[in-house]
Fold this protein.
Amino acid sequence: MGKRKVTILEPAVEEVARIALFIEGEGLPKTAKKFVDDAFDFLGRFQMTELLVGLVSILLPGKR
């Protein structure tokens, strides 16, 4: 059987960013940062390096 690449980069990045912005909007900037860090750790376990790069570029523009 052949392998098929499934791209979830954009939807996942948008959702993590949306959640982080909501948390920050509730006055919890440290919690929002922790959420993003935990999301990186969780997704990193699945070796989704493309997703992690996308998260960095959206959540921390210019910090790639």
